[in-house]
Amino acid sequence: AKASGRNTVRFFEQNMQQSLEQRLLMEKDLRLALKRQEFSLVFQPQVDNQQKIIGAETLVRWTHPKRGPVSPADFIPVAEETGLIIQLGKWILEESLSFLQRLSQSKATKNDLHLSINISPLQFRQSDMVADFSNALSAREISPEFLTLEITEGILMDDIADSSTKLEQLKEIGFRVSIDDFGTGYSSLAYLKQLNIDELKVDQSFIRDISSDPNDAAIVEAIISMSHHLGLRVVAEGVEEHPQLVFLTHQHCDAFQGYYFYKPMAEAEFIEALKKTTR
Ligand code: C2E
Ligand code: CA
Ligand code: CA
Ligand code: CA
User: From the CA atom positions of the chain, what is the Rg in Å?
Assistant: First the structure.
């Protein structure tokens, strides 16, 4: 047992060493990627209970020249830790706004579509965050109500005072704010009521087993009901199967996102999807 214990420790150290090297390499590559413009955006449609497209979430993609596509789940944390997310986040915002602008000019739909973008912890904590967003918007003719900022529960709860100040300012400008990955953090309902938010996104880990696990079903039912009492809309993410949709519709969930409807897609494909579903 002793020997194997020692082996376990060595194995662990080797892994740490390897992952440190990988991180350093990734950091170097991320810096280059910004210069070489290796990032792109995809858009995952959100639909209403009629399965009509009402908007989309912006998701960033990185195609490394040698390694190919790298998952944002892998590179966003490194970008966050190295501060590169600030530069990347600005680029994502600019590209998202210009996409929104093209969308409002295109004849694919008469409806106003909204776009949700993910805000990382470091980005949200910048002291000039609100000013940056406000300036980016006023440089273009886009109304802030068409932009939803997705902020995770963890970020908001991390510094309640700063969060509530920023949310007030963002709301003042007219942005919509959504709590991302809801249910995975430790939000207190009391704080939730105090924070000026518009929407909750139920995390996909709760949606996954909704039709087989009574506990998950009960949790989602409670989240939706509580949200509606607080005047918030609810978006379910990671909807993959019809029974999940049936359950969520029955609970009066407001909007849906997931592979059952659409995968994240490039702009041209999104426009095509719009033409097919809106009339
Ligand atoms: P998230 O914000 O929770 O994004 C949802 C993730 O779920 C996306 O993965 C999306 O492609 C995936 N997804 C959507 N529908 C389904 C489904 O039906 N089933 C399953 N299994 N997955 C589904 P993605 O694009 O790999 O992004 C992962 C995470 O990376 C995001 O989680 C977000 O935290 C971060 N991220 C992605 N894009 C951005 C960005 O532009 N900025 C920032 N700050 N973070 C981003
Ligand atoms: Ca999100
Ligand atoms: Ca999410
Ligand atoms: Ca997530």
Answer: 20
